[in-house]
Amino acid sequence: MASTNDLKNGLVLNLEGQLWQVQEFQHVKPGKGPAFVRTTLKQIPSGKIVDKTFNAGTKVETANVDRRNMTFLYKEGDDFVFMDTDTYDQIPVGPGVVGDAAKFLLENSDATVAQHEGKVLYVELPASVELTITYTEPGLQGDRSSGGTKPATVETGAQVLVPLFIDNGEKIKVDTRDGKYLSRA
């Protein structure tokens, strides 16, 4: 059990038998009335997002989530196989759990895998990854960094919008949360 005053981003709550991850929270003290905590919660298996308010100081049940650093080894059928870097145990993770992170997973890349009671809840990648452009249309003479963007395919098969001056074979940094181009690597 934890108090609403102890909430932080990433904390997993057990509300009415379902697991919810805190995405955002805000303590609010209005001029009149008691203080409360406004939260945005994401249901873990489905990804459904809801807003919920709690009275300040209310006790909420937290889930015991084991977050481990793991290495993505390979894809076997539909499953993604991860290896625990401490124990060298290998676990298969279904595509529904990996979700959008699959677009940026390369073999031997690191990820954080969260488990609850032996069941994998979600896979979290670093904030950015370096990927190589496999195909993009050639840029034209005079294209500058302040110009537009063009689609590019990276080595994982994902589509990323990049500036016009980026060419095939270049390494770029991509934000794993929204899939946007950050910079050249």
UniProtKB/TrEMBL annotation:
<comment type="similarity">
    <text>Belongs to the elongation factor P family.</text>
</comment>
<dbReference type="InterPro" id="IPR012340">
    <property type="entry name" value="NA-bd_OB-fold"/>
</dbReference>
<dbReference type="Pfam" id="PF08207">
    <property type="entry name" value="EFP_N"/>
</dbReference>
<dbReference type="InterPro" id="IPR008991">
    <property type="entry name" value="Translation_prot_SH3-like_sf"/>
</dbReference>
<dbReference type="InterPro" id="IPR014722">
    <property type="entry name" value="Rib_uL2_dom2"/>
</dbReference>
<dbReference type="InterPro" id="IPR001059">
    <property type="entry name" value="Transl_elong_P/YeiP_cen"/>
</dbReference>
<dbReference type="InterPro" id="IPR011768">
    <property type="entry name" value="Transl_elongation_fac_P"/>
</dbReference>
<feature type="domain" description="Elongation factor P C-terminal">
    <location>
        <begin position="129"/>
        <end position="184"/>
    </location>
</feature>
<comment type="pathway">
    <text>Protein biosynthesis; polypeptide chain elongation.</text>
</comment>
<dbReference type="GO" id="GO:0005829">
    <property type="term" value="C:cytosol"/>
</dbReference>
<protein>
    <recommendedName>
        <fullName>Elongation factor P</fullName>
    </recommendedName>
</protein>
<dbReference type="GO" id="GO:0003746">
    <property type="term" value="F:translation elongation factor activity"/>
</dbReference>
<dbReference type="InterPro" id="IPR013852">
    <property type="entry name" value="Transl_elong_P/YeiP_CS"/>
</dbReference>
<dbReference type="GO" id="GO:0043043">
    <property type="term" value="P:peptide biosynthetic process"/>
</dbReference>
<keyword id="KW-0648">Protein biosynthesis</keyword>
<dbReference type="Pfam" id="PF01132">
    <property type="entry name" value="EFP"/>
</dbReference>
<dbReference type="InterPro" id="IPR013185">
    <property type="entry name" value="Transl_elong_KOW-like"/>
</dbReference>
<keyword id="KW-0963">Cytoplasm</keyword>
<dbReference type="Pfam" id="PF09285">
    <property type="entry name" value="Elong-fact-P_C"/>
</dbReference>
<keyword id="KW-0251">Elongation factor</keyword>
<comment type="function">
    <text>Involved in peptide bond synthesis. Stimulates efficient translation and peptide-bond synthesis on native or reconstituted 70S ribosomes in vitro. Probably functions indirectly by altering the affinity of the ribosome for aminoacyl-tRNA, thus increasing their reactivity as acceptors for peptidyl transferase.</text>
</comment>
<dbReference type="InterPro" id="IPR020599">
    <property type="entry name" value="Transl_elong_fac_P/YeiP"/>
</dbReference>
<feature type="domain" description="Translation elongation factor P/YeiP central">
    <location>
        <begin position="67"/>
        <end position="121"/>
    </location>
</feature>
<dbReference type="InterPro" id="IPR015365">
    <property type="entry name" value="Elong-fact-P_C"/>
</dbReference>
